[in-house]
Structure formats: C-alpha cells, structure tokens
Amino acid sequence: MKLRLFLLLFLALLNLSLAAERSPNIVLIFVDDLGYADIGAFGDCDYPTPHLDQMAREGRRFTDFMVSAPVCSASRAALMTGCLHARVGIRGAFNPKSKNGLNPEEVTLAELCQEKGYATAAYGKWHLGHHPTFLPTRQGFDEYHGIPYSNDMWLWHPRYNGLADDDPTRRKTYRELPLLENEDVIDADVAAEERRYLTQMATERALSFIERNKDRPFFLYLPYSMVHVPIFASPEFEGKSGAGLFGDVMMELDDSVGQVVAKLEALGLDEDTLVIFTSDNGPWTSYGTHAGSPGPFREAKGTSFDGGVRVPTLFYWPGKIPAGTTCEALSGTIDILPTVARLIGAELPERKIDGFDISSLIFGYGAQQTPHEFFPHYYKGELQGIRNQNWRLVFPHNYRSLNGREGRSDGLPIAYDTNTAELALYDRRNDLGESTNVIEKYPEIYDTLARAAARYREELGDRLRKKEGFGVRPSGVVTKGEDLLEW
Questions:
Q1: Which of 142, 278, 308, 356 could form a disulfide with 70 if both were Cys (CB 3.0 to 4.6 A apart)?
Q2: pLDDT at 16 over 90
C-alpha cells in the first residue's frame, strides 16, 4: 500500500513537472485602428463586447500600454521585432508602390517561435512589405492568409471620391487590393462585397490552425484588418449592434475573439495558452462615426499624444494570470517579443532591442513597476516627445487635429487642421487630456526628460534637427529585377 501511494505521488509530481515545462501556446490578436475606449472593459460603448469584457474579468487589463508609433507599418515593425520602429528604419505606412519592408535580417517574434519548434501562422493584414522577400512566410510564419496592406489602399480610396471610375489618377498610388494565401495572389481584386468577410475569413483560418496544431505548441498571430476604414461587417452582424456600422464591426470582432477562446477551451488548451489582445494605434477620428474613440486622451491616430499611442490591452491565461486585475505600469508592444522569448525559452536576438520582459507585470508578482525608465515618441523620423511613468515632455512639432470638430457619418473623412505643439511638460497622473503645461513648475523633471531625449537623438536621430542616429538599422528594400513584385 505504501509503495503504491509512493508511486502515485511520484507520478503526480512528475506530471506537474512536465506540465510546468510545457511551452505555452501564444495567441496574439492585433486589431487595426482600435481606440482606447472601443471595448467595454476600457470605455462606455454603445454596443456590447461581451467576450472581451469576459477576458478582462478573467484576465488582466493593461491601462498604460503603448505602441511605438501611431501608424500601421511602423507600429507593426515594433511589435514583430521588440524594437522601437525608429531603430529598424520604418517610419510610416507602406503603400502599394513602396519598395521597402521589414528587413529580413531583423529577427521576428515568429522566427523565435519557429526556432523552438512552434507551428506559426498569421491571418489578416500584414503591412510590413508586400514584395515576396518581406511576406510573412519569409519572416517566420508557416502559413499566411490576408491582405498585404491597409484595405483603403485601393482604387477607390476616399481621396479619389468624385473621380470617374476610369480616371487614371486613381492608379498614381494605388492598385486593386489583393488577397494572398502564403505567397500566392488568390484574389487579385478584393471587391467591397468580399471585404464583408475579411474578419470571418481570418477567424475561420485561426480556428482551423488551432485544431490542426492542438498537439504541438503554436504561435497564432491575428492582425485583423478591421476597424481600419473602409469598415465592413458580414451579413450576420450588419445592423445587429443598433449603434451603426462601427458597432456592428466591433461586435463581429468581439465574437471572433470569443470563438478563438472557445476553441481553446473545447480542446483543453486554454490553460496552456497566453492570449494577448491589443491594437496597432489609436482611432482614425477624421472618419467620424466609422471610427472609434480615444476615450479621455488627447488626439488620435497619427499623433504622438496618448490618443494616438495608448491602446487597450488584455492578457488572458486562465490559472496563470490573476483574474479581474489591472496593471497601470508603463509597458508596450515592444515588450511582447522579449516576454514571449522568456516564456518559451528562446534566446533573444543578438541585435539590440528596446523591449523588456514584463512577465512580472503580466502574472502579478514582484513590484509592479515599469521596466522603462524612458519611452520616446517618434513619428515620421521626428522625436516629438518622451515620457516616463508619470510625465510626458512634448517637443515643438506640427500635428494634425480636428480641434473638436465631429466627422461625417458616411465613411468619408473630413480634413484635419494643422496645429503646432509647444514645448510642454504634462502630468500624466492628473492630466489625462494633456491640457495643462507644467514645465515651469517642475524644472528638474524637464531637465531629466530633456537629457534622456538628447541621448535618444544621438542613437536614433531626429529629422526635425537634421540629426542621424548611430543606432538606426536600415529597412529592407527591393529594386527592379531583384525581387520586385508589381501587383
């Protein structure tokens, strides 16, 4: 009897040890242009987001989670590499005529996972270069299905509103929007009717990928093309929210997240999987009712104020992450790569990265303090500001603003005003809207942040001051005859 009990205890301890050594699955959901207040767990929405709200109740909210840039390609480059976008030479958003992309010499999150034997897949919008050498399948993903850049980058871009359908102006920058499967164009012209199913297609592939790889560790990247304009919802969700098309689109995204989590639960994988939900930048508010909300924060997409770079973020892992908790420490998308590397036992890239392992913030152990002494805000090559946990120093620069004007309700944008930001210090604890300049009141804080900014200018440059940085690495580039693809 004693021997039997001993054997049972030994086997139980062995099973616990094996379970502890199991590499977790990683699901990374990256929504396009989602504002801070666009889900119920972070804002007061006119539409329901029950699945995301449940993830917040059963997981951990991050309320001071930053993206590196307030624009698509630069933000995604930072997510994939763990680097500030300025370090990897990507400043804005690639268009169909761009010859650049994420340099293949950079090490991506997917490549780290592949090296550890993970199955990897990306379904949705890529936007890190559409030429073959830059596609997901060359950057660490076994599978890819989706669009290569934003879905407004087509012949009917809003800037061409009113032009004749055959006006050659439409082709100066854009082309038909293609849909890719791995490296093949499977639909050369994704029409508006087909775009209603973009969210659904990505979700269906995600569910299939989880099912097919349930017996091995996997990394699933879901960069949904919504809610980037033009927005579309499938027939199942059109009119369902009672809050307009944007509400319908959000309900469908929420339902898709719910389906992914339900699939993990059904396969018994939920306790072995870290799910991360976040956004690439703030909302594109010039599109009126077709855009979301930055909540209490200043400005939106395309600016370095919090409305452009602070995004709603959830970490969910039943049994591992303390349920119903909130982390207020400064962290960001550049921290995802080093954190995942630690969780799966991967070596960090030899090249310098800017992110930190934030496991202690995610799992709620140790001091809940930011690992970032400073966090710079670069946009279009300009160092527009720098912050620490409690303060932001803004440098003079031009930025776009609606100055309180409301947008339209038909999916067309209104024009921005151009404002000039003053040299200013903002108390981020007590002034969420960054409206009161306290630079004269706290000269020592100004000095600390200004000195840190000077160091970043040396390393990463500053276009406004015509300064090149010694730590900037080049983006990838293709030339005609090398690997140049014209859709």
A1: 308
A2: no
127 is catalytic: yes
Instruction: State the sign of the Cα–Cα–Cα–Cα dihedral 294, 297, 298, 301.
Output: negative
Q: What is the pLDDT of residue 367?
A: 82
Give the separation between CA 304 and CA 387, rounded to whole angstroms: 11
Tell me the C-alpha distance between 175 and 167, whole Å.
13
How distant, in Å, are the alpha carbons of 35, 149, 225, 365 from that of 125? 18, 6, 5, 35
Give 479's pLDDT tier (boundaries 50, 70, 90).
confident
Q: Which of 44, 31, 27 is nearest to 296 (CA)?
A: 44
Please identify which of the residues 72, 83, 113, 327 carries the catalytic annotation: 72
Are 273 and 214 spatial neighbours (Cβ–Cβ below 8 Å)?
no
Q: What's the pLDDT at 399?
A: 98
Instruction: State pTM to two decimals.
Output: 0.94
Q: What does DSSP say about strands 417-421 and 184-187: parallel, antiparallel, or unpaired?
A: unpaired
Reported as half-sphere exposure (CB side, CA atoms, 13 A), residue 294 has a value of 27
**How does pLDDT run across 195-252, given as a tens digit for each residue?**
999 999 999 999 999 999 999 999 999 999 999 999 999 999 999 999 999 999 999 9
Q: Average of pLDDT values for 27-31?
A: 99
The terminus-to-terminus CA distance of the chain in angstroms comes to: 73
Say whether 45 is catalytic.
no
Q: Whose CA is closest to 57, among 36, 37, 38, 40? A: 40
User: What does the pLDDT read at residue 269?
Assistant: 98
Distance from the Cα of residue 434 to its chain's centroid: 23
Is pLDDT at 414 greater than 90 in this prediction? yes
Instruction: Say what the pLDDT of residue 22 is.
Output: 75
Q: Which residues contact 434 (CB under 8 A, 6 or more apart)?
A: 297, 298, 305, 306, 392, 394, 424, 426, 428
Question: For position 75, what pLDDT does the model report?
Answer: 98
100-101 and 143-147: which strand pairing? unpaired
Q: Which of 45, 83, 85, 127 is catalytic?
A: 127
Residue 21 pLDDT exceeds 80: no
For the cut 80, the answer to whether the pLDDT of residue 484 exceeds it is no
